[in-house]
UniProtKB/TrEMBL annotation:
<dbReference type="Pfam" id="PF07690">
    <property type="entry name" value="MFS_1"/>
</dbReference>
<dbReference type="GO" id="GO:0016020">
    <property type="term" value="C:membrane"/>
</dbReference>
<feature type="transmembrane region" description="Helical">
    <location>
        <begin position="294"/>
        <end position="319"/>
    </location>
</feature>
<feature type="transmembrane region" description="Helical">
    <location>
        <begin position="389"/>
        <end position="407"/>
    </location>
</feature>
<keyword id="KW-1133">Transmembrane helix</keyword>
<feature type="transmembrane region" description="Helical">
    <location>
        <begin position="477"/>
        <end position="496"/>
    </location>
</feature>
<feature type="transmembrane region" description="Helical">
    <location>
        <begin position="97"/>
        <end position="115"/>
    </location>
</feature>
<feature type="domain" description="Major facilitator superfamily (MFS) profile">
    <location>
        <begin position="31"/>
        <end position="502"/>
    </location>
</feature>
<dbReference type="InterPro" id="IPR020846">
    <property type="entry name" value="MFS_dom"/>
</dbReference>
<keyword id="KW-0812">Transmembrane</keyword>
<keyword id="KW-0472">Membrane</keyword>
<dbReference type="InterPro" id="IPR011701">
    <property type="entry name" value="MFS"/>
</dbReference>
<feature type="transmembrane region" description="Helical">
    <location>
        <begin position="413"/>
        <end position="437"/>
    </location>
</feature>
<feature type="transmembrane region" description="Helical">
    <location>
        <begin position="121"/>
        <end position="143"/>
    </location>
</feature>
<feature type="transmembrane region" description="Helical">
    <location>
        <begin position="64"/>
        <end position="85"/>
    </location>
</feature>
<feature type="transmembrane region" description="Helical">
    <location>
        <begin position="360"/>
        <end position="382"/>
    </location>
</feature>
<dbReference type="InterPro" id="IPR036259">
    <property type="entry name" value="MFS_trans_sf"/>
</dbReference>
Amino acid sequence: MDKIQQVEKKSGVPLEVALDTAGSGLYTWYVVITSGLIGFAAVLSIQGMAFAMPLAGCELELSYTTRGIMTSMGFNGMLVSAQFFGFLADNFGRKRVMMFTQAATMVVTVLWSFAPNTTALGIILFFNGIFLTGTFTSAYVYVGEFCPSDTRSKGLLIMTAMMSTCNIYLPAMAWVILPLDLYIPVIGDFVFTSWRLYIILITVPLALAMLLLSKLPETPKFLYVMGKHEETLEIIRTIYAVNQKKNKDEFPISSLCQNSEDEISSKVATDGNQFINYFNKMMRDIAVLFTKKYVFFTLVSCFLLFSLVGSCNASIMWFPQETGRIMKHYQSNDIFNVTLCDLMEGIGSAQSDCNINYDFMYAGILLGISEAITCVIVGLWGLKLDRKILICICSFLTAAICFLTVFLTSQYLIILCLASIIVLLFTMFPVIISIVVELFPTQLRSTAASLTMTSSRLGSALGGQALGILFDSHCRAGYFGMTAFVTVAGILCIFIPTGQKKKQEV
């Protein structure tokens, strides 16, 4: 009987077909959930400062300009290191890079909670961003290379929905921890206060994410490109056995193959200085992305992430400050009747806002709930639309809301619009990434994802700092500029070549 089954097995099957044959099930969703938790912990680290800033800014006596710099410092670090970690993930493995960067992030987070002054805080946040790059980039590629083609976009959206719950966790934890009257003298004038405890608690999800990831292997696609064909097939057999609740030996494929594109050797030269060899290969990989075959994909993806994700992260960074300002004005005035820009342009001294009322954290909790629900809805029903149509709809709707926000004079409508902008932009991110993953061959995917995500971090860093500067006297210009960027992105996304998916996939 075994001989008959062996004869019936197919050989030389493309890797993507083998993954599709393994199907979706418990193994696939363990990967998605683990990656979602990894992303969740990473987002906590990059956005944690935004919720801690009202209290930390008062303790360290930071101006609003400095607060804007501090909240975007992590994105500056991510901007510097994005391409480097993408290259490492393409050459040494997605899992290995994630394990290293998460361990480094845990160390940096502990140091972060003990930062004694503004300079130290800025340096630590910068290095935090550097290490988080490897986690973010590799996590999305990791999911994309484990999921079969029919559930890849859904898996990425579920992963993003898990990540979005950080916007429930962060304000909820802030509401509980930050008001604590914690005052523990450590050394000299340094005192351990509640916002420092808030930061150090971020290490708990990081540790859990590392534990879950340690139980998983490297992605099949990466291993195959590295020449580990038997190991790749064994992993896919395991995926099949867990997903289909069958024996490994029943997997109907005996050997694998890939498109010639993905069989290009990923190895660097063995002679000469190895650092120089790796650097040269990284430059070659980047150069390939700007060849005639890929340059259009690369440039469009870069602009989409620069404008959409950059606008999203800039909005998230300022959401606690904006909602806090709105709620404070509402509670101290019988009639609201002011616009958002009236409030932000009249922001005055940063120290004047140190009498903090944490009721505005409720808006952050509701925002996180809305993001998670929207991601699930898009994952279950929204993907029945063509993905570029979905991006276009969300882009134009976001632009309209962004434009409308500056004219509203109702506190509830303003907060609703600010939250809607973030939710819509946040939901588009995994949809764009799912397309990027499919447009490039395996040995270039992390490099491509890193390059395009570098654009998103550039947009995030510039957007967050620009809004902080413009709030002083040109608030409306800031929101009109965001409206223009998102509108152009919606027009450009029409030209995303999703129809070429099968040609590019492995």
